[in-house]
Structure formats: C-alpha cells, structure tokens
Amino acid sequence: MAATTESVKADAAEAPLLNKRNLFLGVALYCVFYAWVRWYEGVYGWSAGMDSFAPEFETYWMNFLYIEFVLEVSTAGILWGYLWKTRDRKVMSITPREELRRHFTHWTWLVCYGTAIYFGASYFTEQDGTWHQTIVRDTDFTPSHVIEFYLSYPVYIITGGAAFLYAKTRLPTYQQGNSIQYMVATVGPFMILPNVGLNEWGHTFWFMEELFVAPLHYGFVFFGWSALGVLGVLNIEIAALAKLLKKDLA
Amino acid sequence: MSASQSAVRSRAEAVKVSRTFDWLIMFTLFFVILGGYHVHFMLVAGDWDFWSDWKDRRLWVTVLPIMGITFPAAVQAILWWRYRIPFGATLSVLGLLFGEWVNRYFNFWGWTYFPINFVFPSQLVPGAIVLDVVLLVSGSMQLTAVIGGLGFGLLFYPGNWPVMAPLHLPVEYNGMMMTLADLSGYHYVRTGMPEYIRMVEKGTLRTFGKDVAPVSAFFSGFVSIIVYFLWHFFGRWFGSTAFTKGS
C-alpha cells in the first residue's frame, strides 16, 4: 500500500510525456507573430513600400530589416548556444521513459518546424509572387522581400537548426553519426537563403519582370525538394519509437 | 525485461502515446510537404496556376500535371511502400491546395486586390485520387505510374473544366475576339508581369481547333508517367535512414 502511494506520488510529480502547453504555445507564437507581420504588410506595403528612395521607406521597411537582422542573429546564437551548452553528456544512459519524453519534445520542435516552413516556403513565397507581379521593384529590399527572404526564411532556419540540435544532443537515436536526411531537411531549406543572392543578381542584371517560372528561380525549386528529407526523419523516428513501444503494444 | 526498463506503464498508455505521435507526425508531414511542394509548384508551373488568363488549352494543360505529379509520387513511395498508408498523393495535393487557397485569399485578393475568380488555383484532386486508388487496388508501382500517371494528366482538364468553361467563352471587345479570361487580364494589369511575358496558346497546335486540349492532356499524361517513375525513386532516396559515420 505504502509502495503504491509512493508510486502514485512519483507519477504525479513527474513531468508529462508531452508538454501540450509548450506545443500549443509554440504553434501559437508563429501564428500570432505572422498575423501581426501580415497586418504590418497590409498597412505599410502600399503606404510606405512603393518607392525605395522615399524617406518613409527607410522608416518603415529598412528599419524593419535592420531590426530583424539583429533579432535573428541574436535568437539563433542564444537558442542554438543554449541547446548545445545544455547538451546531455550521458545521453546513452537515459531511461527508456526519459527517451520517450525527449522524442515528444523533439516532435514539438518538428511541429514548430512544419509551421515555420509553411509560413516561409508557402505563405510568404507565393505572396511575393503577387506583390512583384503587381508592383515594379526598384530595390532588392522590397516590402515582400523584407518579410519573405529576410524574416520568414531565417525563422524556419533557426527552428530547423534547433530541432536538429535537440535531436543530436539529447536523443540516443542520433548518436551514431549525422542523419543524412535530417541534414537534407534542414540544410536544404537553409540553402534557399543564400540562393537569394543569385535571385537578386539575376533580377538586377537581366530580368526585371517577375515571371515566376523563369529558370532564374530554379535554385529555389531544387532546394525546396529537400523538404522531402522529412520522410527520412519520419522513418528514423518511427523505428526508434517502435523499439520503445513495440513490446507494450503487442 | 523489468518494468523499470519499459518506456510506458501500461498497454493503454502505449496506445495513447502511439496515437499522439500519429497526430504530431501527420501535422508535421502535412506542413513540411506542403512547403516543399508549394515552392516547387509555384516556381515551375505557378504563373499558369495564378491567373485565369494563363489557363489556356495548351501550356496550362501540359505543364501543371507534369510538375504536379512529382511530390505525390515521392510521398507515395514512403507512405505506401513502408507503411501501407493509401493516401500519399491526396495528402500532398490537399496540402498544396491549402497553401494556395490561403494565399489567393489573403494575399492575391487581400493584399493586391485581384478578384478570387481571377486567381483561384487549379484543381488536382481527381488525378490524386486516381493515383491513390490505382496504387491501393493494384499494389504495383508500375501500374500506378502507367495508369495513374496517364490518368493524372488526362483528368486535369476535365477536372478543371466546370470552373474554367465560363472564362473561356469568346467575347468581342473593341473589334477584337478574345476570351473572358483574356479580358479580365487586360483589365487587371500586372505591371511586373507585362503581357509580352504571358505564355498561352503558343505554336500551331491551336490550328487543330477542338483537339488542342485532348492532345495536350495526352502528352501531359505521357510525360507524367515518366516523371512518376523518376520521383518514386527520389522519394525512396529521401526516405532513406542512413547516417554519416562518426558522432
């Protein structure tokens, strides 16, 4: 009886396997933040974003760009640094239950990565199409680029890097080396950001119009394919979870 | 093995954990595949998909199925061949359509003020259902590629016909003959994408009159078969679980 009471107390004190609060807060953070960003675009895109030589463009768009650069570098440094600094140096000796708990936390990161990828690769990238097919660009730092290339892409890069680092530093599954498909799924979409260099060079050199299917854009396409690396991560994770749960599910 | 070595405390908890992971995995897969598929699709076929005055009988019908069958083939290669989940193609296409509809509403209409009936996305669901059903019934990648791939190309135009037909009606405007879709395009000027860029009704196929769309769809189905094979193997590679050596 006493032992049972102790066990129940221990269960009650134990952290939950899945921290639902963190999961919902994580997704909500991206949604609320990007809703605010979309509002900002709607208000200041047309009123201050048409002429890059105008003083209001500097106020509302270039200052936005400078601030986001600083925040992104700081966030990446602090988050990635924290995950690395607090890494588990005895990761191979954790209990199966702790390992399961960490897989849940890892999937919380992956859910956040999915949300960030959606906003970056889908929402703000196609939005760029309608903006640039409608408005003639007179700078590389147009309102849609300030958000798409220099905000939504760094955000998913930071999130993907954090997911990868979490797995690498806390899960036994990823201690045998680096998962090739995990690297493809995070480094590939990251490479879309450097590819902006080619895009801007091409658009300023020979192609001012915005034909979305122009070969100039195929670098984005190639690196976009790498999102399919998530299928490899899925297979690795399912094998690991099956190992943890199989005998209990049988 | 002692109880302390188990990750869960009961079978009921194991089932609950398994179901919870299903939801987390489905959410992540849906949105990551959506992101990759959408960025691919908008940059290899997007212009024909964005604007109704690009939705012609030739290039729209040819290009979109060929570029659209890619991710469904890759996702099927993992979801069916590893897990026997029979809706990989439909999941991919629904993801793409979700991304497109949200965008067309909030951005094409909500930010740049084009009417929705000028910017609605193309319909790909009928072809995706055929791909999934052929795979489910036959269990054969080759039959799915040949019959499903051909169906994916052939069904594209009829699948879109109910919504496009009114916009392909001819009108006479200032002495010129054009479609209603063309007329919409002339009224809704896109400064960054001038008329000389628009790729519609190119070449001499249009002199075939009523045969333009069927010939384009058949050609599209033929190439879709080949692209399906190619992307099936891409999918298998992306689903591999190899690690680099070392830690």
| DSSP helix fraction of chain A | over 70%
Number of strands of chain B: 2
The arrangement of helices and strands of chain B along the chain is HHHHHHHHEEHH
Write down the overall mean pLDDT of chain B. Answer: 94
Tell me the number of helical segments of chain A per DSSP (H or I, 4 or more residues long). 8
Rg of chain A, rounded, reads 22 Å
End-to-end distance of chain B = 29 Å
Helix/strand/pairing category of chain B:
mainly alpha
The CATH topology of chain B is given as particulate methane monooxygenase, chain B
Multimer state: heterodimer
Shape annotation of chain A? elongated
| Uncertain spans of chain A | none
Secondary structure tally: strands of chain A: 0
Give a structural overview.
The complex is a heterodimer of chains A (about 250) and B (about 250). Chain A is mainly alpha-helical. Chain A has one domain: Up-down Bundle (Glutathione S-transferase Yfyf (Class Pi), Chain A, domain 2), CATH 1.20.1050.50. Chain A has helices at about 1-15, 20-50, 55-85, 95-135, 145-170, 180-205, 220-225, 230-250. Chain B is mostly helical. Chain B has one domain (about 10-240): particulate methane monooxygenase, chain B, CATH 1.20.1450.10. Chain B contains ten helices and two strands, in the order ααααααααββαα. Chain B has helices spanning about 10-45, 45-50, 60-70, 70-85, 90-110, 115-120, 125-140, 140-165, 180-185, 210-240; strands at about 170-175, 175-180. A two-stranded antiparallel sheet of chain B has the order 1-2. In chain B, helix 3 (about 60-70) packs across helix 8 (about 140-165) and helix 4 (about 70-85) packs antiparallel against helix 5. Chain B is elongated and about 85 Å long. At the A-B interface, helix 2, helix 4, helix 6, helix 7 and helix 8 of A face helix 1, helix 2, helix 4, helix 5 and helix 10 of B.
